[in-house]
Structure formats: C-alpha cells, structure tokens
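Morning!

This is the sequence you dropped in the shared folder:
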Amino acid sequence: MAFNRSDLVILNLYKYKPMKKLIFTVLAFAAVITTHAQDVKPILLYPDGIPNSKPAPADYVETGSKDWAWKVVTPTLLPYPADKSIATGTAVIICPGGGYGGLSMDNEGYSIARAFNQIGVSAFILKYRLPSDLIMKDKTIGPLQDAQRAIQLVRSRAAEWGINPAKIGILGASAGGHLASTAETHYKQVVIDNKNNISLRPDFAILMYPVITFGDLTHHGSKDNLIGKNPTQELVDLYSNEKQVTADTPPTFLVMAEDDGTVPVENALLFYNAMIKAKVKGELHIYQAGGHGFGINNSKSKEKWFDWCKSWMNSNGF
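The structure's back. Tokens below.
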C-alpha cells in the first residue's frame, strides 16, 4: 500500500493514543471542509451568451490564484449552500472588492461565505466581470448586469437551494460595496433580459468599507475603472449612490474604519445620511481603527462586525 506525505503524518499522529480521538475528529472535520471547497462548482451566469460583450483579445486572459482573480471574461456564481440542519432560508450574494480592477476572492469572498454558512445562511460568491472597453460594449453597466443576473438566478432557483425568495441579500466590500450599493439603488434600471419580471431588488444589503460616491470623496481607481477618467457629470451623479437612495432602498448594514486610508470614511456617512433622509432602516458601525480591507476580522479590534451584522439580520427577520 502506498501513502502520500499527508497519510504518513496522520499515521504518525495516530501512534499517540491519548490524542487519537481528538486528532481524527479534527482531521475528519478538515477533510469535510476541504472536500466541500473542492466540490464548489461554478455556475455560469449566462449559459446562452454573455450580454454586452465583445470578443476578448488574445492577450486578455483570466488570471489569478486562490486569493485574487483578474481579467474575468466569463462571470460565474460560486454556491455555498448552508447545511440543511441549520439553514435559515436566507441567502447572500457576495461581491468581492478590488477597485474594479481585480477581485479579492479569499479575503472578501470565501472567508465571508464560510462565516455565513456557520449561521445557516447560504452564500453565493459573484465572480463578476471587471469593467473594460476591451471586452464590453458599455463597461459602465457590465458589473451591474452581473449583479442583477446573480439576484435573478438565485431568486429563480431559490426552491432548489431551500432559499426563501424574499430573503435574498447582497454584500459587497470596497469596490464590491459600490457594486452592491448600485444593485440595491438601481434595481429599477434593468440592464439584463428579464422577460419573467423576476424582482431584481435585493431584500437587504451589507456594505463593507464601500466606495459609494464618485464625487470629491471617491476612490479614484474604482471610479476611473468603471466610468473612465473623463466621465460626464450625469454619469458621475448616476453612480454616486448616495444620490440614488429612495424610500424603496432595502435595509442596509454598513461597517467601516475611521482610519481607512483608501476609501474615505465619509463614503459610508454619505450613504447612511441618505438612508436617514429616506427613512430606510439600517445600521452604521465605524471602527476607530482597522484601515481598509480588513475582511471578516478587524485585527485592530476585539469586536466582530459579523456579530453585529448577525444581530441586525435577526432583528429584521433575515
């Protein structure tokens, strides 16, 4: 019988009988997690053809690693359904950040999906197209198309995953937060085929250190990548999402750090102030420190934003 290196490690550990049960319990659990990760099969957003697309140049090829993805040409949805024994029927679509130039798949994708699974919420990581004139006819609507299609797809297949179609939210971090806030404020601006009139409105939104405005307090990289370096004022206003909040905007949870040196904290304040004026329910949490891109755990604080978020979801029936 042949063993690989990991097998030999397990066999050596097994010799220590007092630890035997604990070790094999841990190893079995780790194996389940690993197997689950390997079993995640991407779902094509557009199996019949990607809208608003142009043939990609030969040198425009998707690259990446476990942590990041760049030059996404074929958008997909990565499903992480909650275990049936604890499933709540709630789902969240996760939009990783990266300045609309890349996707932080691990820090703002997989780790967050796993956290939601632990509280019985199904998660779907959206690997969306990054705006580019090389592969899109109109790059300003490309990411929004993918976000709307993700909502449409999850809602239309909700029964298959044991999801309540009235409990589908969207989460975004950084530029992904801009996309999520666009999805929740522009859902009446339908940019995909929706002949069955499936609601494209998320039932709630979670925005992590989000890019919100394309005004003076914007993150210029995100703005330039989405709408170009010389956009019209109309386009700037359209994607300054604090200007798009209405009474119909879904309940929204925001979290940010005061010392964010990448996206000014005023972005969250602008959106929350617009929510107050429109009487939209929500919560805003601002850490004293944490910088930008802290992901699931802010190393500068013992307080866990995910715990606050869980309580907020419970209080709103999600």
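Headline: Confidence is low (pLDDT under 50) at residues 1-38.

More detail when I'm at my desk.
O.
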